[in-house]
Amino acid sequence: MILKEGSARGFRAYTAKHLDDLLLRAGLGDEERLRIRAVATVLPFRTNAYVVDQLIDWSAIPDDPIYRLVFPQADMLPEPDVTRLAGLLRAGAPNAEIQAAAREVRMRLNPHPAGQLDLNVPRVGEDPMPGMQHKYPETVLFFPKQGQTCHAYCTYCFRWAQFIGEPDLKFASDDVDNLVGYLKKHPRVTSVLFTGGDPMIMSESVLRRYLEPLLELEQLESIRIGTKSLAYWPQRFVSDPDAADTLRLFASVVDAGKNLAFMAHFSHPREMESPVAEAAVAGILATGAVIRTQAPLIRTINDDPATWSSMWRRQLTMGMVPYYMFVERDTGPQDYFAVPLARAHEIFRDAYASVSGLCRTVRGPSMSATPGKVCVDGVAEIAGQKVFVLHLIQARDPELVGRPFFARYDPTAAWLTDLRPAFADRFPFESSELPELPELPELLGPSDPFEPATVPQRLSA
């Protein structure tokens, strides 16, 4: 269903200035609302009327999963930090003082995990190429400047640092020519992922300026768009004024011979239940695009097998492809949301065992860590030692992909850096350093720096 062109958008955003009034709906007392506002000085808050009015069950607060998905909680950060910030708010401290205290907390939350600013960004000489990441040989990530916000923010978002107004922590670009030039000099790149933020916050006319130049590149096989819009604002594809134009743009990408993959972020089955979400999914699929679904495993929101099996089955019946279960990344309020790896694998295994083979396209639980995407395959006993069995789904060094390795079993481990090697002195990816891109002038030569013969045998954790 597409409403006629020119229909009113009706989108209404809520930000931190609306937070206290929204929390009154939950019946929270003055002190608890103050402490939640204190957390919101550190981490970003943004939601919208669709999420607030149609997805949240306000009678089930504070346990409602969608409420916890978008509203900060008073205990998400260390108690001394929350108490200090709440005290500043209570005393009416100057905003500069509050922001300085908030920044101290942020800098302890690993705002850019997996070396995003240091290891993944291509460089020209000594200057980085902003808004672009090239972690894996065949894939380039691009962060469009106009897409550096979302229809609503997830409380566990690993890219929270993009949304807090710290210029030094942002990376984005509107230089499409630079992107195209870079791709031409890297013919091994076959896929571009637009991410952010959320690229679907952009209008059709702006999105077209990014997509159309790529359609002339024969090397590109796929264009991916990472988005939460199907969950947080499905009207984008149904009733927004440019909804029909957006779907026609998607169809033109497919007609150009590119695989258009919508990397849809669904965290809970309720996000797919509304008629407008169903209409949005159907509209996108009708263009020839593929929708692949992914989300992290998050404590208090979706940390049980029934939630995941329900999500995967629902996605399958709607025509989407279950793709990834991620592990909560080592950034932001990870201590609050993380599920230990051993429990994460149990949840994945039990959910996986309860769905049909068509749902078993999903992979996980996977950690997007510095060396690559590390999958926890299970727990085993080998030579009398209990171990995690792992492999790299994707890696900076392609030679490591798919090769199993082992870590000592630790029931409390929640991230790769919590693990220690088993049966070896170090993990396979610790035996060498990271392959580096040469400076741009050198890229004009005949060889691709990611060809196996020229990849330096070095990779760090």
Word description of this protein:
This is L-lysine 2,3-aminomutase. The strands form three sheets. This protein has an eleven-stranded mixed sheet. The chain has a two-stranded antiparallel ribbon with strand order 1-2. It has a two-stranded antiparallel sheet with strand order 3-4. The chain is globular. The protein has 461 residues and is an alpha/beta fold. The protein has 14 helices and 15 strands.
Which characteristics define this entry?
single chain, 461 residues, alpha/beta, TIM Barrel, 2 domains, eleven-stranded mixed β-sheet, two-stranded antiparallel sheet, 15 strands, globular, disordered N terminus, disordered C terminus
CATH superfamily placement of the largest domain:
Aldolase class I
* CATH architecture label name of the largest domain: Alpha-Beta Barrel
Radius of gyration: 22 Å
> If you average the pLDDT, what whole number results?
88
The largest sheet, given as strand count, sense and whether it forms a barrel, is:
11 strands, mixed
Shape annotation: globular
Q: Structural class from helices and strands?
A: alpha/beta
Instruction: Kindly report the spatial arrangement of strands forming the biggest sheet.
Output: 5-6-7-8-9-10-11-12-13-14-15
The tally of strands reads: 15
Gap from first CA to last CA: 48 Å
Write the layout of secondary structure elements.
Layout: E1 13-15, H1 19-24, H2 30-40, E2 46-48, H3 49-55, H4 65-70, H5 79-90, H6 95-106, E3 123-124, E4 127-128, E5 132-136, E6 139-142, H7 176-184, E7 191-194, H8 204-211, E8 222-227, H9 229-232, H10 243-255, E9 259-265, H11 275-285, E10 290-297, H12 305-317, E11 321-327, H13 334-337, H14 341-353, E12 363-369, E13 372-382, E14 385-395, E15 405-408
Helix pairs in contact: 2-5, 5-6, 8-10, 12-14
Organism: Streptosporangium roseum (strain ATCC 12428 / DSM 43021 / JCM 3005 / KCTC 9067 / NCIMB 10171 / NRRL 2505 / NI 9100)
GO molecular function, one term: metal ion binding
Cofactor: pyridoxal 5'-phosphate
